[in-house]
Backbone:
């Protein structure tokens, strides 16, 4: 339902344009829980912004973004507005600042319905309360009257989700929705997302840097590094049998509970490249244990695989997925 | 809320008290001979002696102080040598003119300022925004008295459209005084022609004040609006599919008002200073001109009175504005309740 | 290298080439400072030489700003006036800054009660209408530039005190200060090495822009006759003197006013440019 091909988001800079997103392509099927993983600066958030048409004014977006076959890239803002909220919902991190502090929560949810003319004043208010109840906010009618700073962080994030889903979009983009939350709340919010997806047949594009989030819920995973795709695959294959060295290193550094006691935490040597320091060829080669001469020269092309894609000159061997 | 009001009220009274004491200090203690000081430069020895008796300047300082403060409480600001009337009476006579100018200017300023700020933000980065920024940059350095004279030059000397000064044409008959505000009184008397004349007289002095305020205020409003636009909730609204109009009116403006209002109370302090200058330039018969004319002939009681009255006005306005914030920003309501 | 030292280094790093308008502003300020310091070198005529034959001449080659009612060259008078108008503004703002910064720093570092008390005092002065105070001071202490300096100085220092106190309190809470404290750094040393460097940036911005505003205030007071007295060619006085003549002699009004406006603009532009890096320099 969502098909992204060769997406590029570039920013003009003195000394050469900077590509925050550099040739990213993937598909999201209806009802699929698709997770994009990457470190800060990998371009994952910018990808989400590009899909919504919410990149900063100085950014230039190239490539193809098709929603149900319709091309979204390059659409003027006026044309994107009917799509935002109605066909694609957006939830982003830190719900406290993401909500207007001067208006009650219920009114902000109802606004989503107003914008797309799906309900009149009273009906929208009613539905806002119903939506809050749907996302398991206790005492929904009281919360609807409250201001964002008067309710807890977990409730706020649920309210944000209610806001994003008010018009029943087919796709929900969640950009680091759990980053600002406590661990226990995190789990609840994610469970909520999974549940809603079941009920509504919603596709979820979850962007995160938090590995722990991913394991339980993802159907398919996209790993990004330095603005490019490293690997795409089913959750099973990416988590258990990764083929890209970067993915493997990520999984190793996250699997703390499986390490023998007293062994040093495996860390990936070096730091991710910043704006000015992106290496030539494969962006990961300075930190890659498998790097060879051609890695520094040629950018590995994104090769489609049966269940995904891979961009590496010397990937790990295809291991059987452990039972 | 009530607690806040009480606390601020008490604090304001204290400030007023301090200022009054300072003026006492300046007019009775500092001058070598307070009687001569108050009698004015050209006073005869008999006049000086009379003043000394009238004000009780021979008495011990403390009892003078008590008498002084007591007098203030009763609205007794002493006597003006120049007009030979109690200062309080003079103030009452001249106050409406100043108030009318102040209120007219401030309302005009509020409207113009928001309009300009919205323009600047809507067309951010365009030439309109650039022109507005240049204006605020240069405009904040224009002395208000110079601006008044420049306006006189253009609109009176060169174009002859507007009067050079005064509140009302000399030979015209003013309407019967009801409120003391010419704009209102002329309307009440049903005299549209006179209304036009009063309005014409107001325009240049008000313009001088407004342009200066705008240069400073638009900068702040624009900065406040830009800050708001950068906030995450604007992104959320866009994510819902909201258009620029909705975002501006329903989200941004509401939140930008509070910081702007904070700056406004300081600007009121400027306004009070500027009013004196403007009244002098335009011969506007308000308390500013009154006090200044007294000052020029070394008649100091009105100057002292002006200091106290303007402090009072400033404190009242500040208090009023401070009470507005919680109403505008729900987050502050919690903090103050 | 300690976090503080690194941050200070960053804050002190020389900025890249500033935009053209800022450079122009700097040149203007340099010229003005020259006017103030060595007017004899730069003024084409004497500021007090009377020449009644050539009174109220429009601007021309001999007199770029025209002449006044006594035939004096306005351009020269403006140049000589710089040290009174701008010079006094600089002195006032710097003095106010010195006192205000010290006051604000103490208040910012002090315990709650002392801080509250100190700030209450500041509140008294804050926003007080300048002109009124100046009138009262001039009335009591006599007219002249020293009265003006006193009145303005009293009005100006609270702004700095508040600014510095706010900044000090903000920075006090920062992790690097806590870390320094944990290492045993205290009192004056703490202030000097870990807090003041960040505050200085803000103060610089304020000092720069305030010079322009102080200038405007000085000219206003002179205009009213409170400050400089004739025949000092202070800019506000020049404007005051033009009052009787400007209907026909527009240059008498325009040029002194332009000087004030452009001087203030130069300082504002510089101040704004100094402020642009604020958010970067503040990185904790």
Residues:
């Amino acid at each position: 339902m969502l098909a992204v091909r060769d997406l590029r988001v570039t920013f003009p800079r003195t000394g050469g344009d900077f590509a925050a997103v550099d040739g990213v392509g993937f598909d999201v099927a209806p009802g699929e829980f698709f997770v994009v993983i990457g470190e800060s600066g990998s371009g994952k958030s910018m990808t989400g912004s590009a899909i919504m048409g919410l990149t900063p004014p100085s950014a230039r977006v190239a490539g193809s973004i098709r929603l149900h076959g319709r091309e979204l890239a390059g659409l003027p803002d006026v044309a994107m507005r009917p799509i935002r909220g109605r066909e694609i919902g957006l939830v982003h991190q830190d719900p406290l600042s993401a909500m207007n502090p001067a208006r009650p929560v219920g009114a902000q949810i109802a606004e989503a319905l107003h914008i797309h003319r799906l309900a009149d004043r009273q009906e929208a208010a009613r539905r806002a309360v119903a939506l809050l109840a749907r996302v398991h906010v206790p005492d929904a009618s009281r919360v609807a009257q409250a201001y964002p700073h008067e309710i807890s962080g977990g409730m706020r994030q649920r309210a944000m989700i209610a806001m994003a889903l008010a018009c029943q979009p087919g796709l929900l983009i969640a950009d680091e929705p759990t980053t600002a939350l406590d661990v226990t709340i995190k789990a609840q919010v994610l469970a909520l997302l999974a549940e809603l997806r079941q009920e509504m047949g919603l596709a979820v594009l979850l962007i995160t840097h938090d590995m722990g989030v991913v394991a339980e819920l993802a159907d398919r995973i996209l790993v990004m590094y330095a603005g490019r795709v490293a690997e795409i695959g089913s959750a099973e294959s990416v988590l258990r049998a990764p083929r890209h060295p970067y993915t493997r290193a990520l999984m190793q550094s996250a699997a703390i509970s499986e390490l023998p006691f007293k062994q040093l935490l495996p860390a990936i040597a070096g730091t991710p490249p910043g704006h000015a320091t992106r290496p030539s060829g494969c962006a990961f080669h300075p930190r890659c244990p498998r790097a060879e001469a051609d890695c520094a020269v040629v950018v590995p092309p994104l090769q489609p695989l049966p269940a995904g894609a891979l961009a590496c000159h010397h990937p790990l061997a295809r291991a059987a997925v452990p039972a | 809320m009530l607690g806040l009001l009480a606390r601020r009220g008490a604090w304001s009274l204290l400030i007023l008290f301090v200022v009054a004491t300072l003026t006492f200090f300046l007019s009775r203690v500092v001058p070598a001979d307070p009687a001569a000081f108050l009698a004015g430069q050209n006073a005869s020895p008999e006049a000086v002696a009379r003043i000394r008796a009238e004000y009780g300047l021979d008495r011990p300082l403390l009892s003078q102080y008590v008498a002084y403060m007591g007098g203030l409480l009763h609205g007794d600001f002493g006597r003006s040598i120049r007009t030979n009337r109690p200062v309080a009476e003079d103030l009452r006579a001249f106050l409406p003119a100043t108030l009318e100018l102040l209120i007219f200017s401030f309302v005009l300023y509020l409207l113009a300022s928001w309009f300009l700020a919205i323009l600047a933000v809507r067309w951010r980065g365009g030439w309109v925004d650039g022109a507005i920024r240049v204006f605020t940059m240069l405009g904040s350095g224009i002395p208000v008295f110079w601006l008044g004279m420049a306006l006189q030059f253009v609109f009176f000397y060169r174009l002859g459209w507007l009067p050079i000064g005064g509140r009302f044409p000399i030979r015209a008959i003013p309407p019967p005084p009801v409120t003391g505000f010419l704009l209102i009184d002329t309307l009440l008397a049903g005299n549209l022609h006179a209304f036009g004349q009063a309005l014409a007289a107001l325009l240049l002095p008000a313009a001088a004040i407004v342009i200066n305020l705008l240069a400073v205020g638009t900068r702040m409003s624009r900065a406040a609006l830009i800050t708001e636009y950068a906030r995450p909730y604007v992104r959320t609204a866009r994510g819902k599919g909201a258009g620029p109009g909705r975002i501006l009116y329903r989200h941004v403006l509401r939140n930008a008002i509070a910081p702007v209002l904070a700056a406004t109370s300081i600007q009121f302090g400027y306004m009070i200073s500027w009013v004196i200058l403007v009244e002098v330039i335009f011969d506007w018969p308000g308390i500013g001109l009154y006090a200044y004319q007294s000052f020029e002939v070394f008649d100091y009681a009105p100057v002292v009175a002006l200091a106290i009255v303007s402090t009072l006005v400033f404190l009242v306005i500040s208090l009023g504005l401070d009470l507005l914030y919680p109403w505008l920003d729900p987050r502050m309501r919690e903090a103050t309740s | 290298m300690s976090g503080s030292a690194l941050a200070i280094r960053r804050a002190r790093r020389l900025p890249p080439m500033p935009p053209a308008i800022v450079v122009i502003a700097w040149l203007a300020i340099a010229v003005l400072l020259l006017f103030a310091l060595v007017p004899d070198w730069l003024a084409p005529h004497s500021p007090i030489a009377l020449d009644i034959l050539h009174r109220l001449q429009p601007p021309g080659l001999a007199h770029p700003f025209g002449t006044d009612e006594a035939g004096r060259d306005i351009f020269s008078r403006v140049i000589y006036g710089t040290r009174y108008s701008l010079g006094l503004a600089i002195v006032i703002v710097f003095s106010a800054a010195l006192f205000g910064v010290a006051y604000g720093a103490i208040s910012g570092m002090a315990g709650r009660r002392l801080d509250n008390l100190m700030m209450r005092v500041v509140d008294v002065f804050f926003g007080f209408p300048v002109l009124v105070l100046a009138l009262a001071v001039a009335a009591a202490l006599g007219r002249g530039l020293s009265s003006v300096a006193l009145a303005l100085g009293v009005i100006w220092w609270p702004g700095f005190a508040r600014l510095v106190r706010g900044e000090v309190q903000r920075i006090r809470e920062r992790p690097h200060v806590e870390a320094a404290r944990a290492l045993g750094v205290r009192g004056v040393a703490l202030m000097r090495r870990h807090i003041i460097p960040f505050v200085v940036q803000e103060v610089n911005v304020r000092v720069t822009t305030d010079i322009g505003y102080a200038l405007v205030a000085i000219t206003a007071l002179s205009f009213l006759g409170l400050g400089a007295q004739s025949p000092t060619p202070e800019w506000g006085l020049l404007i005051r003197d033009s009052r009787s003549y400007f209907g026909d002699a527009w240059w008498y009004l325009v040029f002194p006013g332009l000087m004030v406006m452009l001087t203030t603009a130069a300082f504002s532009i510089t101040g704004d440019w100094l402020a642009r890096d604020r958010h970067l320099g503040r990185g904790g």
